[in-house]
Amino acid sequence: MNATLFHKNQKAIICIAFLAIFTLFSIFKTTMHSTDVTVNIWVTTIQNDTSTLVAKAFSTVFDTILLAIMSLIMAIFLFIKKHKAQSLLLLAAVGGNALIVGTIKTLTQVARPENQLISGSGFSYPSGHSAGAIIFIGLITYYVWLNWNNNVRVKILSSTFFGLMIALVGFNRIYLNVHWLSDVIGGCLFGAFWLSFCIMICEHLKLNSKFKNN
C-alpha cells in the first residue's frame, strides 16, 4: 500500500513539475526572442530542395487532423482488444491536447515566422505538432511498456524511438520556419505535462473502477 501511494505521489510531483515549468516558460518566453530569430535565420542556411520535400512530407504525418484519425483507429483497435482504459485514454489525451493547445494559442496570440516554407494556420505558441507527437508517441511507448514490462530490450528500443521522433518533429517545425524555437520547447513542455497527467488519471481509474483489469 505504501509503495502504491509512493508511486502515485511520484507521478503527481512529475506532473506538477512539468506544468510549473511550462507556465514559467510561457511567462518568460519573450526573453528568448533574440534566440528565436537567430535560430530562424540559421535554419535558412541549411535548407535545400530535397530536405524541404522530406520535411514537408514528415510534417503531414503529424498534422492535427491526421493525428486525430490515427488516434481514432488505434483507439478502436484497443477497444476491440478489450483494452478499454487505454482506448479512452488515447482519445481523451489527443482530444484534450488539441482543445487546450488551441485555447493557449488564442490567449497568447504569438505570430508565426514570416519566412514559412509551408502555410501554418493560426497562432504559433505552443507548437501543436510537438505536443501532439509527445502525447501520441508517448502513449504508444507507455502501452508497449505495459505489455512488455519485463523486456528491458523492448523498453529501451521504444524509449529511444520516442526520443528520436520527438526530436525530429521539433526540428522539422523549426526547419520549415512554421515555428520559433521557443514554440517547440513550449509544445514539448506542455505535451510532457498533459501526457503525464492523462497517464496518472488513467492509472487512478484503473485502480478504482471497472477498468481495473483493462
Task: Kindly summarize this structure in a few lines.
The chain has 214 residues and is an all-alpha fold.
Give me the count of strands: 0
Total domains: 1
- Summarize the biggest pleated sheet: none
- How large is the count of helical segments? 8
- What is the succession of H and E elements? HHHHHHHH
Oligomer: single chain
Percent helix range: over 70%
Quickly give the structural class: mainly alpha
Strand content: under 5%
Shape: globular
Q: Which whole number gives the mean pLDDT?
A: 88
N- to C-terminal separation? 21 Å
How many whole angstroms does the radius of gyration measure? 18 Å
Model regions low in confidence, pLDDT < 50 over at least 5 residues: none
What does this protein structure show overall?
With 214 residues, this protein is mainly α. It has one domain. It has eight helices and no strands.
Question: How are the SSEs placed, and which strands pair?
Answer:
Layout: H1 2-27, H2 33-43, H3 49-61, H4 64-80, H5 84-108, H6 128-147, H7 152-175, H8 181-208
Helix pairs in contact: 1-8, 3-7, 4-5, 5-6, 5-8, 6-7, 6-8, 7-8
Comma- or semicolon-separated keywords:
8 helices, single chain, 214 residues, mainly alpha
